[in-house]
Specification:
This protein is an alpha/beta fold. The structure holds adenosine-5'-diphosphate (ADP), magnesium ion and zinc ion.
Length: 604
C-alpha cells in the first residue's frame, strides 16, 4: 500500500517523500482507523487526508471552517489533477445542485464542506447514499472550548460517528494541548485515535520579551535590525494599528495597516502590497494572518500581550516559515492584562474561567524567567531536551537577573519547607515578606525562622519569584490549592548545587502604584480623551469648571464600561439621576461615535 501512496504523491503532487509523521497519518486513514494529527503550521496536514482520498474507492469529506480555505485547497487540488469540489453558501443554488449531482454520481474524490452543512439532515441524506471512505476535520481544535478558536457549529460534528458509523474520522490541527486533544477525541466520539503529534519547537525563531516602555521606539529598534525585510507588527486595538502605522510611515518606514474595521478593498490592498513586497511591514490586529503563506517573514512584533499562548504561538509562528532565522519580539505592560479582562466581561461564566486561565498563563510567560522555547513547548505538552536553547532572551542572557538569585531562591525554598510544604504561593510570599495578617499570626508562622526573610521586597515581587521557581522546575504545585513542594532540582538549589534565575523587578513595575494601575485598568485612553473633550464643551456651555460636570473617575469608568443605555449610565459612580437627565444623551452619543469610529463595541 505504501508504495501506491508514494506513487500518488509523485504523480499528483510531485513530492518525492514524506514530511515527518505524514506517512503514519496516511496509513491510519487507509487502514480505516480514526486519528488525531497534530502538526505545526506548514507541517503538511492537508496531504494526510488528501493522499488517502485519492487512493480509497469512495468520497472523502473535508470539514473546514472558512470558505477561503476551502476555495484555496480545491483550486490547488484541481491544479494537481485531483477531482475535488466544495459546497458552500457563496455558491448559487444551481451551482450547489451541480455539486450534489456529482456526489450522487460518485465522481468526486474530495468534497469540502462547512460543519453546519454536513450535519444538516438533507445533506446527510445525500451523503448516506454515497460511498464515503473517510471524513477529515481540518482545524479540529475548533470543536473544543479549550482551544483558541472555539466554534459552536463544530460541536455538532459529534453526531457523525453515529450517523456514519463505519466511516473513519481524522482530526487535524496545529495547536492542541493535551487537554484540547482529549476534548477533540471525546467530542467527536473517536474510536481509539492514538494521536500523532509532531514537534512544535520552532528552533529558528528567536523569542524576546520586554516591558513596554516606549512603544514607537521599541518597535523601531526591531525594524532597524531588519531593514528592508518583511515582518508583521501586531496591535491589540484597531486604533493602535492606525496610529502606529502613521507614525512609522512618517519616520520613513514602509508599512501598511490591516484590521477588520477597514473596507474589504483596503485590506486586500494592504495584503497585496505586503505579499508583493511593496511594503516591508504590515501593522495589524490579529484579524491578519489566517491563510497568509508568505514564507520570508523575518520578524513578528507584538506591541501588546496576546490573550493566550495559543494565539502567541500562532501569530509569532508566521515568522520564518522558510526555516531561516526570524525574530519574535513581544512588548507587554501590566495594563494589557486589564484590557483583555475587560474585553472578556460579557462571556459566559464557563468561557470566562477558561479565558482567564489562558490569560494568566500568557502573563506568566511574559513575566517569567524560564527559556521561552521551553515554556511554549511545555504548554503544548512537549519537553525541550536542551537546557540552553540559544534562541531566546533568557538563554541569550539579555534579561536582568537579580545578582543574588541563588540566595533569594534558597530563602524561598526553605520557607516552603518550613511551612511543611502545605501552602500555596500567595501565603508563602506573605510569610517571606513578614506580613502581619491575622491568619499568619494565628497559625504562629511569624515564629518561623524564614518569617520576614525577604521583608525588603514587595509581596508581588516575591510571589513573581515563586512563580519563576515553579517555571524553572524548582517548585511544583499540587492539588486544588496549588500547594508548593520542592522538586529534585529545588533540593539541589537549596544545597547550592544549581543556579536558578530570578528576574530583577523592573523599575517601572516597581514604581507604579496599585491604585494607579487599578484606575486605568481596562480604560480605553483614546475614549477617555474624547469624553474629556465632551466634558469641556458641556462645562463651557454652562460656564462651570469641568470637574463639576463629571469627575475623572466617572470618565474613566465610562471609558472602561462603555454603557449603551440611559439605564446603564446610573451604574457609573458619579452619575446620578440629575446628571443622567442633563448629560445622558450627550454621553451616549459620544461613546457611540467613538466606538463606531474606533472599531469598539458599546456594551449591551
Ligand atoms: P498545514 O495544513 O499543516 O499547515 P499544508 O498542508 O498547508 O500544511 O502544507 C504546507 C506546505 O508543505 C505546502 O506548501 C505543501 O505543498 C508542502 N508539503 C506538504 N507535504 C509535502 C511533502 N511530502 N513534500 C514536500 N512538500 C510538502
Ligand atoms: Mg492546513
Ligand atoms: Zn531559551
Amino acid at each position: 500500500m505504501i508504495e501506491r501512496i508514494e506513487e500518488a504523491l509523485a504523480k499528483y503532487w510531485g513530492y518525492d517523500g514524506f514530511l515527518p509523521l505524514q506517512k503514519q497519518a496516511i496509513e491510519r486513514v487507509v487502514q480505516g482507523k480514526d486519528s488525531i494529527v497534530v502538526l505545526p503550521t506548514g507541517g503538511g496536514k492537508s496531504l494526510c487526508f488528501q493522499a488517502p482520498a485519492v487512493l480509497l474507492p469512495g468520497l472523502t469529506i473535508v470539514v473546514s471552517p472558512l470558505i477561503a480555505l476551502m476555495k484555496d485547497q480545491v483550486d490547488a487540488l484541481s491544479e494537481c489533477g485531483v477531482t475535488a469540489a466544495r459546497i458552500d453558501s457563496s455558491q448559487s443554488p444551481p451551482e450547489q445542485e451541480e455539486v450534489i449531482a456529482r456526489i450522487r454520481a460518485q465522481t468526486l474524490k474530495l468534497l469540502y464542506v462547512a460543519p453546519e452543512r454536513l450535519v444538516s439532515q438533507s445533506f446527510l441524506n445525500v451523503v448516506q447514499q454515497a460511498t464515503v471512505s473517510s471524513i477529515a476535520i481540518d482545524e479540529a481544535h475548533c470543536v473544543s472550548m479549550w482551544g483558541h478558536d472555539f466554534r459552536p457549529e463544530y460541536r455538532q460534528l459529534g453526531m457523525l460517528k453515529q450517523r456514519l458509523p463505519n466511516v473513519p474520522i481524522g482530526a487535524y490541527t496545529a495547536t492542541a494541548t493535551a487537554k484540547v486533544r482529549a476534548d477533540i477525541a471525546e467530542q467527536l466520539h473517536l474510536d481509539n485515535p492514538e494521536p500523532l503529534v509532531g514537534s512544535f519547537d520552532r528552533t529558528n525563531l528567536i523569542y524576546k520579551v520586554r516591558q513596554r516602555t516606549d512603544r514607537i521606539k521599541q518597535v523601531c529598534e526591531v525594524l532597524d535590525r531588519h531593514r528592508g525585510e518583511s515582518g508583521v507588527v501586531y496591535c491589540i486595538r484597531r486604533k493602535d494599528v492606525d496610529t502606529l502605522c502613521t507614525e512609522l510611515n512618517a519616520r520613513g518606514y514602509k508599512t501598511a495597516p490591516y484590521h477588520a474595521g477597514m473596507s474589504a478593498e483596503g485590506r486586500q490592498e494592504s495584503q497585496d502590497s505586503f505579499i508583493k513586497d511593496k511594503v516591508d511591514t504590515i501593522v495589524a490586529t490579529i484579524a491578519f494572518g489566517m491563510g497568509i503563506d508568505k514564507s520570508n517573514v523575518r520578524y513578528v512584533i507584538h506591541t501588546g500581550m496576546p490573550k493566550s499562548l495559543e494565539h502567541y504561538q500562532q501569530e509569532s509562528g508566521r515568522a520564518g516559515r522558510d526555516g531561516l532565522e526570524a525574530e519574535c519580539a513581544l512588548f507587554h505592560s501590566g495594563g494589557d492584562y486589564g484590557t483583555w479582562k475587560s474585553l472578556m466581561r460579557d462571556m459566559s461564566p464557563e468561557a470566562h474561567e477558561i479565558a482567564l486561565a489562558k490569560l494568566k498563563e500568557m502573563y506568566s510567560y511574559c513575566t517569567g524567567g524560564t527559556c521561552r522555547h521551553k515554556v511554549l513547548l511545555r504548554y503544548f505538552g512537549q519537553d525541550l531536551e536542551k537546557t540552553d536553547c540559544g534562541a531566546c532572551d533568557i538563554c541569550l542572557g539579555e534579561v536582568d537577573c537579580v545578582a543574588n538569585s541563588l540566595e533569594i531562591a534558597q530563602k524561598i525554598l526553605s520557607c516552603v519547607l518550613r511551612l511543611g510544604q502545605r501552602f500555596g504561593g500567595s501565603y508563602t510570599a506573605l510569610v517571606l515578606v513578614g506580613s502581619r495578617e491575622q491568619r499568619i499570626l494565628e497559625s504562629g508562622h511569624d515564629a518561623l525562622s524564614t518569617y520576614g526573610l525577604l521583608s525588603e521586597h514587595s509581596k508581588q515581587i516575591v510571589h513573581d519569584w515563586i512563580e519563576q521557581l515553579v517555571g524553572q522546575d524548582c517548585l511544583d504545585k499540587a492539588g486544588e490549592y496549588n500547594v508548593l513542594h520542592l522538586t529534585e532540582k529545588g533540593l539541589r538549589v537549596l544545597k547550592g548545587q544549581e543556579q536558578p534565575r530570578l528576574l530583577a523587578p523592573t523599575r517601572k513595575a516597581a514604581k507604579r502604584s496599585k491604585a494607579a494601575q487599578d484606575s486605568w485598568e481596562g480604560v480605553d485612553e483614546g475614549l477617555f480623551e474624547a469624553l474629556r473633550a465632551m466634558r469641556r464643551t458641556l462645562a463651557d456651555r454652562k460656564r462651570v469648571p469641568a470637574y463639576v460636570v463629571l469627575g475623572d473617575r466617572a470618565l474613566r469608568e465610562l471609558a472602561r464600561q462603555r454603557p449603551a443605555t440611559l439605564e446603564a449610565l446610573l451604574d457609573i459612580k458619579g452619575i446620578g439621576e440629575k446628571k443622567r437627565r442633563q448629560y445622558g444623551e450627550t454621553i451616549l452619543a459620544t461613546l457611540q461615535e467613538y466606538c463606531d469610529t474606533h472599531g469598539l463595541d458599546v456594551s449591551g
